[in-house]
Specification:
alpha/beta, seven-stranded mixed sheet, binds zinc ion, 395 residues, 3 domains, Metallo-beta-lactamase, Chain A
Length: 395
């Protein structure tokens, strides 16, 4: 435990395998205290060097725990002020078909405002989560693209792990029609769980869901079984206009409630958020697509996304015919989708097991779309709302 005597203090502790320094800075954002922790490790641990931003309230000490996976700080993330800004995105694995010793199967995990979402869960995905130092327990929603084994066979093991941790909160599963039947079959080996499962089967070609602050759009893609891509968006309300509130003589205690989207009725008046809020501002958008041929809908969904994660099963140009036959894509087809959709960045994933060095093909890919990256397992980004200080890192 490091007692934080005064903000700005630097703590230094000798560890068995290195030295850790924790710098704590306290800054104010929107009138709320935000603590920034900067962790630095000695050279033997330089692999873990990264900046971590946490928003916490009322904490005066920082317990930490160290394992071979790095440092874990025991800080609960809590929303501070009116909104939490960052979306943490981690591409846990980048493989297709089967997990390999150096490559987990394609799966995405995001964290926002204390809520965790996962897309696809193939064999070994829970190990990839642990390797990343994240936890399976707070997952609220799992979306499935389709029911091929490399996208769902890790589910029973994950459910058992969550059950062992004595989770009680319900878990929502979203997927194509037949989801409940498929999961029921997989659950023959995980029949008793201490938490309920909620099933949401997608019925339409494009369907939207609101869950835990996430705005999820599922859209049909073109694979050899029913398959969906997903857009995960964090919408952002407009700016509060105090001048308008004054002119309308809205009592001060109602201001923050209106900012949170509440409608307030008094005996003499009704106040709605649109009376004092500006037009919605640009939010955060991540589009995830795997196991499909290119379609116009993918371009539409990924348009201006902060991040477009797209399958690229084959890097070799002469595998185009194979890609068409098995309903997958080549790197170049993915790059062309990105060129049309113009996201800030594209990450390729779902590589064929025969593709051992995806980066070898990237010069040609970047000739089509310059901001393309051959993602590796565990690639991470923190996405911030546009006019906030953006922190981007990779791990
Ligand atoms: Zn697949
Ligand atoms: Zn598939």
């Amino acid at each position: 435990m490091f007692p934080l005597k005064k903000y700005g203090d630097t703590f230094r502790e000798k560890m068995a395998s290195g030295t850790i320094w924790i710098c704590v800075k306290r800054v104010m954002i929107n009138g709320s205290a935000v603590f920034r922790f900067q962790l630095k490790f000695s050279r033997s641990l330089s692999y873990y060097n990264r900046r971590i931003r946490y928003r916490i309230c009322g904490v005066d000490s920082v317990p930490f725990f160290m394992s071979e996976h790095g440092i874990r700080l025991f800080i609960s993330r809590m929303p501070c002020g009116n909104e939490e800004r960052m979306l943490d995105v981690c591409l846990l694995g980048t493989g297709g078909m089967m997990p390999l010793p150096y490559r987990w199967l394609t799966s995405l995990m995001t964290r926002f405002n204390g809520s965790t979402l996962m897309i696809d869960c193939g064999e070994g995905t829970q190990i990839a989560v642990r390797e990343k130092g994240w936890s399976c327990n707070p997952i609220d929603v799992i979306c499935f693209t389709h029911f091929h084994g490399d996208h769902i066979s890790g589910l029973p093991g994950l459910l058992l792990t969550m059950g062992n941790a004595d989770r009680k909160e319900p878990l929502t599963l979203i997927g194509p029609k037949g989801l409940e039947r498929v999961v029921k079959a997989l659950r023959v080996i995980a029949p008793e769980l201490p938490f309920p499962l909620k099933f949401v089967e997608i019925a339409d070609p494009v369907q939207e869901f609101e869950i835990k602050g996430y705005h999820i759009t599922a859209f049909r893609v073109n694979h050899n079984v029913t398959c969906y891509g997903y857009t995960i968006a964090i919408p952002r309300a407009g700016k509060f206009d105090p001048e308008k509130a004054k002119v309308l003589e809205i009592p001060l205690p109602f201001w923050s409630r209106l900012q949170k989207g509440e409608t307030i009725e008094t005996e003499s008046a009704v106040f709605t958020p649109d009376m004092v809020m500006g037009p919605p501002r640009k939010g955060i958008k991540v589009t995830y697509v795997t196991d499909t041929r290119p379609t116009p809908m993918i371009v539409q969904q990924a348009r201006n996304a902060d991040l477009f994660i797209c399958e690229g099963m084959y890097g070799e140009r002469d595998k185009l015919q194979k890609a068409k036959e098995y309903k997958h894509m080549t790197f170049y087809e993915a790059a062309e989708l990105a060129r049309e959709a113009d996201p800030k960045e594209m990450w390729l994933t779902h590589y064929s097991p025969s593709l051992t060095r995806p980066e070898e093909f990237m010069d040609d890919v970047r000739a089509i779309f310059p901001r393309a990256i051959a993602a590796k397992d565990g690639r991470t980004v923190e996405l911030d709302f546009e006019d906030e200080l953006a922190t981007r890192g990779k791990g």
